[in-house]
Amino acid sequence: MRMPRLTAFLTATAVFVSAFTFAAQAAEEVHVLNWKGYGADEPWAVADFEKATGFKVVNDFFNSEQEMLTKIRTNPGLYDVVMINAAFNDQAMAGKLIQPIDVSKLSNYADIAKDKAGSPMLNHDGKVYGVPWVWGLTALAINEKSFDKPPASIAEMWDPAHKGRVIIRDDAVEAVQFGAIASGQNINDIKDMDAVKAKLTSLMPQIKTFWSSENDWNQMVASNQIDIGTYWSGSADRAKTHFKLPVSLVIPQEGAVAWLDAFSIPVGSKNVAGAEAFINYMIDPKFYVEWVTKVGAPVSANTKAVDALPEDSFNRKVMGSPDVAKRIQFQAPITDEQREKYLALWQELKVNVK
Amino acid sequence: MADQLAIGSRRGLKPALPLLLPAYLWLTVAIFLPLSAMVFFSFMTDLPLAGKEWSFTLGNYAVFFSQSLYSTLLFASLRLGLEVTLWCIVIGYPAAYVLAKVLKGRSREAIFLLVILPFWSNGLVRIFSWAMVLREGGILDTALNAVLPFKINIDLMYSYPAVIIGLVHSYVPYMVLTCYLTLQAIDDSLIEAGRSLGASRRQVLWRVIIPLSMPGLIAGAALIFVPVVGSFMEPRILGGRTGTFYGTVIEDQFVAVFNWPLGAALSFILLAVVLIILALAAPVLRRAG
């Protein structure tokens, strides 16, 4: 009988100790999961938020939406705030990974554009599962050194002049949707998969490498190794404003993929109050203007925040123009079957390149 | 040897237990348990997280055989493993010979240090420094163009050779170390005897030195081949669009698409293939060794 008693004692001690450390942590830390270098981890913003609220921000990062889902699934209770692309909100909710948000606690929520706040991707059964933060485009970006004037068409990616100097993201869904735009199709309802495949197959020999993080893209331009590639609008802005790189965004006449990023609170969050305070801070006009000016950012979902920008700023003038609005297609949720089909196609393309 | 065996069997396993226990406890906790969990995963339809439905299936293994994609990649990875091992022998063996038989004292220590130096730096740092060297306008390109009278364009980055270079650099110390140990153990008088009996230098090399150092060569080759076949970091960073290998696809299943069961199944197929190759090679190698 000695052993079980000893084991019980040890277990009890361990439980006590961990309970105490958890309680001590949970009181003031807000664990945030987001892309690296994407607003939430700006040192000035973190310092400002911590000073205003007394919470301490702990940032963690992911490199793909699937990695983000993996991280919340495998670390229940660790994160308090997670940034989820609206197209993945469905999946996260269905997997019971995120909880409904009490938007009455967010003073800035009322200023969010109605079409974004009311998006069926973020609202389920009358409850809000995601607070729209920013939206932007997956369009093209060019190395200004390689072009006299910016190209108008997506076909520029296939121009033999850029052979070995094109870059696209190593992401099956993004690649397939890009192929859909290039072949003149609706990204959310791709009818002719063969056309997409043919387009991407002919693009492969043009490609230098695949990028997975902003840093990859910026380094390729800094060392003048690429001419053109797919890029996110906020990242292109950041590359120009913050890193002073010769990068400019091109919204091709064929269109571009638009996405909406939103903040959610994972199930099991130990600091919901801190999470609400952080989300509210992130959609505040003051933070947004500072983010755009200092670093470069996508377009805020908060109308007051966009109106606070100078009238000729890119995010207000170009991204807000009705002409652009007509061309872009917002990403809708994707089923697991579609995702697997896209991945199979993407892997096949990558293997055939050998 | 016989005496030792006798002592061992007389005293039995019991007294040795306290000595073995820490190592085996550690192996059980750190390797056996996670590995068995992975075997378990590889037969599941889905991960039992967040109340998802799951059942047992052989489907994950069937995927490998139903799509030519995976066998193509496995073949490419095996080829990569062979090529890297071959280059490691070509580069590492002569270095080990010089260390063991030619150099003495201080100079040996200095050269030895240079060989194991890569072990002291982080693998990712090594790969990224290769990225700086190999790319167009990188260190190699700039240096060669500064010296050479004509213009050449070196852009090895994001290609198959870049992957080979990175991997050979990471793994060559294993070959040097294992070969050094066996070469050093060769009695110099055997070489002298061969020479005095009229063998040419080349004959001594082929008939005396290489056969006697074969165990080191084989150990080095196995140490290099197995991890290279499953490598994913080097191909991903240095290979660019040609950097898709069996290892990177397994990594994708775990990190990018969260299909742990398929990733686990693919890993165990790789393990099985590697074991089969080593088993097939064993008789040949034993005779050689």
Automatic annotation (TrEMBL), chain A:
GO terms for molecular function: polyamine binding. The keyword Signal applies. Residues 1-26 form the signal peptide. The keyword Cytoplasm does not apply. CDD domains: PBP2_polyamine_1. Keywords: Periplasm, Signal, Transport. This is Extracellular solute-binding protein family 1. It comes from Mesorhizobium plurifarium. The lineage of its organism: Bacteria, Pseudomonadati, Pseudomonadota, Alphaproteobacteria, Hyphomicrobiales.
TrEMBL record, chain B:
Gene3D superfamilies: MetI-like. It is found in: Cell membrane. One of its GO terms (cellular component) is plasma membrane. GO terms for biological process: transmembrane transport. The keyword Transmembrane helix applies. Keywords: Cell membrane, Membrane, Transmembrane, Transmembrane helix, Transport. It is a multi-pass membrane protein. It holds the Pfam family BPD_transp_1. It comes from the Bacteria. Residues 74-281 form the ABC transmembrane type-1 domain. Its main location: membrane. PROSITE patterns: ABC_TM1. The chain crosses the membrane at residues 23-44, 56-78, 84-103, 110-133, 158-183, 204-226, 262-285. Belongs to the binding-protein-dependent transport system permease family. CysTW subfamily. PANTHER family: INNER MEMBRANE ABC TRANSPORTER PERMEASE PROTEIN YDCU-RELATED, INNER MEMBRANE ABC TRANSPORTER PERMEASE PROTEIN YDCU-RELATED-RELATED. This is Polyamine transporter subunit membrane component of ABC superfamily. The gene is potB.
